[in-house]
Amino acid sequence: FAYPSYFRQNELLTSQGIPSTELSHRRKSHNMSTTTDPDPQQGALAFIPLEANPQLMTDLIHKLGVSPALQMHDVYSLTDPELLSFIPRPALALLLVFPVSAAYESHRMAEDSTTQEYTAKGDSEPVIWWKQTIRNACGLMGLLHAVSNGPARNLIEEGSTLDSLLKKSIDLPPAERSRLLEQTPALATAHREAASVGDTAAPDAQDDVDLHYVCFVKDTRGGIWELDGRRKGPIKRGDLEENEDVLSTKALSLGPLKFLEREGGDLRFSAVALAGSLD
Questions:
Q1: Residue 138: HSE in the Cβ half-sphere, 13 Å Cα cutoff
Q2: Which of 80, 196, 218, 230 could form a disulfide with 38 if both were Cys (CB 3.0 to 4.6 A apart)?
Q3: Active site residues
């Protein structure tokens, strides 16, 4: 799970006429199936939740090996063309922070109840996906999904932590990919350093929080994918034209705007995008 920087969250929401609100917590049940309770359990490896702060996230992905040609950008609105125009295009990935509400959980469980656990591996996968087994690491999972898919994958520097992680992960089934993340000290160190320098006081690594990151990416064949380590696997939401990116009207309608519509006025949303650097 995750928490957004409150002032950045406020920018996104007030641009759509909605004020920000405080982070809330929730209790979780245990000993359930991955459909009803997909979260890492108490006692699992835990990371400090990552703030939805584009500078912090940019520093983190650069430290892990993403080229300086890419950076994370604030997304101030999902509906206002003028505000969306501030972001360099094409946008390669969108990370949405959203509330894990009763409405969302009902939707997720209904959709996952008819889906088998994802088992694919290898170069033939349209996207690479990681199951989240580290508590409060969904911000990191979102960033991994963002930079490891589509054109962004070609901008990972040879010999870097991410380059090594990807090369090892591609031929592994999901469970082993997750173990690899848990057993990569450089990943944990970089995340810990990033999470400690946000604009707001971070929750504890063991806290239960009810905000979560999901990533949307466009694959090399035009598919728009929802990538979330709490789900049973990657979810294809549709297809885009060559000139449409993850911030196009069609991509937003197939993905993130459905989250906002489902919540019916819940105030806790934030978004950042992966795109070209402004420097």
A1: 28
A2: 230
A3: 138, 212
pLDDT of 44: 75
Domain span at residue 77 reads: 6-276
**For position 160, which CATH number holds?**
3.40.532.10
Residues 6+ apart with CB under 8 A from 269: 9, 12, 13, 96, 97, 98, 99, 259, 260, 263
What domain count does the chain have?
A: 1
Neighbours of 74 (CB within 10 A): 19
Tell me the backbone φ, ψ of residue 6, rounded to 5 degrees.
Answer: -65, -40
Q: Cα 42 vs. chain centroid, distance in angstroms?
A: 22
Q: What is the DSSP-derived secondary structure letter of residue 97?
A: E
Instruction: Average pLDDT across each block of 10 residues of the chain; the chain has 279 residues. List them in order.
Output: 37 37 32 57 80 95 98 96 97 95 92 95 95 94 98 98 97 96 96 81 61 96 98 98 98 96 79 95
In a domain, 1, yes or no: no
Predicted pLDDT of residue 49? 87
Bridge partners of residue 126, in order along the sequence: none
- CA distances for 165 relative to 138, 176, 183, 227, angstroms: 17, 12, 11, 18
CA angle, 244 then 59 then 144, to 5°: 55
Angle (CA) 188 131 262, round 5°: 110
Q: Would you state the structure tokens that stand for residue 84, as one six-digit string? A: 């969306």
